[in-house]
Amino acid sequence: MAGLPGASRARSASPGSPPALDGSFLVSPLGWLMCAQAVLGLLVWSLVAATTYHLHAAYGWVMFVSLFFWILTLLFFVTYLLQLHQKFYMIPWSLVLMIYNAVATVLYITAFVTCAAAVQPTSWRQWDYNRRAAASFFACVTMITYGVSTFFSFRAWKGLGSNAATSQVTDHA
């Protein structure tokens, strides 16, 4: 896939060089999707956290999934933005990213279904209902973005288009 970082240029970060910002990553599909996942994930967990979620066990699961994957998405985002994935070329990043996105998609499906099923329209606190309903919607949208990322990660892993992992393997083989 031409939009992945490092697809159109040679490997620029060697293991001994300091991290450098990758501007092309920010305009790539992977960069856009990770930004969307970070923003949407933040919305999900902040909306749930703004309610009395501790009184309902179902929202504990939603909080865990959304916060866990929000933190991991930020870590992956920084890793790709600073080109740290090129410093650790022995790690199959396209495979790691594909597995991560697939697991995030599946767990966000469970979080979305849990969150949507636990919304009670007869809640005595109207603002809790509104926030939980909004959290359900954003959990669904976040799940879709992770699904799209899984598709693109699978294509990159299979080599259906140029990707950073292919250039890393050929540079160090």
Automatic annotation (TrEMBL):
Entry's Gene Ontology BP terms: myelination
TM ranges: 30-53, 59-82, 94-119, 134-154
Residue ranges of every copy of the MARVEL domain listed in the record: 25-158
Annotated membrane topology: Multi-pass membrane protein
GO molecular function annotation: structural constituent of myelin sheath
Subcellular location per the Swiss-Prot or TrEMBL entry: Apical cell membrane; Myelin membrane
UniProt cross-references to InterPro entries, sorted A to Z: MAL, Marvel, MARVEL-CKLF_proteins
Record Pfam families: MARVEL (PF01284)
Domain of life, per lineage: Eukaryota
Alphabetic keyword roster: Cell membrane, Membrane, Transmembrane, Transmembrane helix
GO cellular component, one term: apical plasma membrane
Family named by the database record: Belongs to the MAL family.
PANTHER family, sorted: MARVEL-CONTAINING POTENTIAL LIPID RAFT-ASSOCIATED PROTEIN, PLASMOLIPIN
Quaternary data: Forms oligomers.
Name of the molecule in the record: Plasmolipin
Organism lineage string: Eukaryota, Metazoa, Chordata, Craniata, Vertebrata
